[in-house]
Amino acid sequence: MPLQSAKIKGVADVVMCVDCTGSMDPCITELKTQIETFVTGLEKPATTNLKPVDWRMRIIGFRDLTCDAKPWINLEAPMVKTVTEAKGQVAALSTDSASTGGDEPESALDAIWYAATQTPWRDNCTKIVVLFSDDTALEILHKDTVAKGAVGNDVSAVKQALAERGIRLYAWAKTCPVWEQLKATPKTVFSAVSGADGLKSIDFKELLATLAKTVSQVAESGPSSAGAKTVAIG
């Protein structure tokens, strides 16, 4: 059922970037199970002080552009606005046994650049990129990304792409030089993944419910609001 426009308090476009290398199976399984939790949190906020969000979403899977024959999933996927469509994009994610990403690091930096620059963001919406990975990130953008239009081949090109569009970045990944630079930038919230369990130790139902609350809060504030809300994963 469409949201009642009189009750909508914010507009948000969300792109999720998900590492699809071998060790991410538990995370992907949880996302497939819990993506409706995130959508429900946007459409029917659990707290009375939040209003429903006019949302759109797309979900991109990435691996390692330097060694995987199939480094992308859903790279050209459209923005969707129903839970059924969102589930369909999540369902496409997999850790292909023939595309394991090799040894870490992975192409997270490229994924963020594509999400930022190749998404048809709506005018006057709150723009959000979410990333999940249990590996470190390659420090140099792939030559194909540079050929696509990246201004430079390192983290500075991604920082520029995010800043120019006013994008908020929320990421869960292993600490590395890329994240040491990105987490210091405005509108970025970074949660370090560590230990043998990595993302497997996270309660994704709670994480996605909290993330939906955060999106609702920043969407209500509007795209030009300063700072970034912290996502507590509990």
Write a structural description.
The chain is of the alpha/beta class and 234 residues long. The chain has a single domain, classed as 3-Layer(aba) Sandwich (Rossmann fold). The protein has seven helices and six strands, in the order βαββααβααβαβα. Helix 6 links the parallel strand 5 and strand 6. Helix 1 packs across helix 7. It is globular. It starts with 9 loop residues before the first strand and ends in a 13-residue tail after the last helix. The N terminus is likely disordered.
Which tags fit this structure?
234 residues; alpha/beta
What is the beta-strand fraction? 15-25%
By CATH's scheme, which homologous superfamily applies? von Willebrand factor, type A domain
Using the alpha-carbon principal axes, give the shape.
Answer: globular
| CATH fold-level topology | Rossmann fold
Structure, briefly:
The chain has 234 residues and is an alpha/beta fold.
Topology:
Layout: E1 10-19, H1 25-43, E2 53-62, E3 72-73, H2 83-91, H3 108-117, E4 126-132, H4 143-148, H5 155-165, E5 168-173, H6 177-182, E6 188-192, H7 204-221
Parallel strand pairs: 1-2, 1-4, 4-5, 5-6
Antiparallel strand pairs: 2-3
